[in-house]
Amino acid sequence: MPESHAGPVIFAAGTLMPISSPPLQDGALLVREGRIEAVGDLADIGRENPDAEVRFFPNYTIIPGAVNAHAHLGFRREDAPEGGTFSEWLASLIERLPEKEAWTAEAARDCAKEAIEAGTTYMAESSPYGECLPQLAESGMAGTVYAEFFPHEIGTPEEAVEFIVAKVRELREGLPERVDAQVSVHSPYTVDPESSRLAARRTREMGWKLAIHLSESPEEVEFLKRGTGGLADIFGANEWGGVGVSPVRYAQSIELLAPETIAAHLATGVSQEDIAVLAQTGVAVALCPRSNDFLGCGVSPVPGMIARGIRAGIGTDGLWSSPSMNLFEETLFALRLYGLSGSAGLELATLGGARALGIQAGTGTLDAGKWADFAVVETSQEAGDPERAVLEAAAGGGVAATVVGGNMIYNRLNT
């Protein structure tokens, strides 16, 4: 059960890494009513707040909680389709959907628990028609479920968009304060262009956000450029392929790209011209490097995207294409793959994800006024690269406690 506190609490550690400012030795957070009221030295904050409860972790580092910018909760390690080509993997996944219904809820609950125990405090989850929203909502994490819809199962483009908008409104009823539902246009090969365009326009008019999978595989590129390949008939006959442009250019042409959109993957065939389009439209990116590696989908041009100011975060994807729900483990893989520094990697896992999802005003760094979302990680205090060291520790099971909105939703220390 989450541990909640009626009065002010001081959370302190041997090292505090706010991300927005340099690390503090014996740093502390004063938390009141779920938010950070002050950040500073433990001695100073303790002296100024003598009645506050103190939770001090002397041999640990407090960092902002992981912000998972793209995840699928409804999968489990058992029964995972083989790797290989993306279309073969996807066809196997689709084939198993009927049997998966029996265990999706349990898998989602287990995946949420695994993410929490690895320091995740916010998750952007995508699932068909928002099926994993109950498990995210009950987990204690903050987050958004992006409800995927598939027009071929519903009707005309107009009917499909009206259906998913009504579904999301229904999903939003009775949710915890920091849990939300939004729309996902699943991908360029599963949602026809008119349904995609209508969904983008409708959600934008209402001030909603939108999620998509984009430029994830070589077969997606082939489908859109030539209308051929393994994705051309993944749901019967997809007649809108063969438009002769890249997935990014295609998404732009049907109005999917905007600052309110988070595009997952962008691993295959992303050119300099595509990067310029992403930067111009203001779309954000969720990187899932382990999933892309498993399915042979290529490597996202991350340094080039970051150089153009594109908002980027990290996502774990799901357990049928990735080995864990540990975002810090994903980030460590990304750090090695893209040649990033420890500080850049830690920022991607926290503030980067928050910026990509448009929630940086409330989370992603440890600053006064933001939600008290953080992880307590067991670390060596003598590391030469402290940011890389805390990433390695969190990736290796070193998260000892996870706090969301001031509530300790995971605590293996019992202190």
Task: Detail the topology: elements first, then pairings.
Elements: E1 9-16, E2 24-32, E3 35-41, H1 42-48, E4 53-64, E5 66-71, H2 86-95, H3 97-100, H4 104-117, E6 120-128, H5 133-139, E7 142-149, H6 157-171, E8 179-185, H7 193-205, E9 210-214, H8 218-226, H9 247-253, E10 261-265, H10 272-281, E11 284-287, H11 289-294, H12 302-307, E12 312-314, H13 327-338, H14 342-357, E13 374-378, H15 386-395, E14 399-404, E15 407-411
Parallel strand pairs: 1-4, 5-6, 6-7, 7-8, 8-9, 9-10, 10-11, 11-12
Antiparallel strand pairs: 1-2, 2-3, 4-13, 13-14, 14-15
Question: What are the salient characteristics of this protein?
Answer:
15 helices, 15 strands, eight-stranded parallel beta sheet, alpha/beta, 24% strand, 35% helix, 415 residues
Describe the structure.
This protein is α/β, with parallel strands linked by helices. 35% of the residues lie in helices and 24% in strands. It is built from 15 helices and 15 strands. The strands form two sheets. It has an eight-stranded parallel beta sheet with strand order 5-6-7-8-9-10-11-12, sandwiched between helices. A seven-stranded mixed beta sheet has the order 3-2-1-4-13-14-15, with helices on one face. The chain starts with 8 loop residues before the first strand and ends with a strand.
Outline type: globular
**Mean of pLDDT:** 95
Main pleated-sheet profile: 8 strands, parallel
Strand content: 15-25%
Q: Could you give the count of β-strands? A: 15
Low-confidence stretches: none
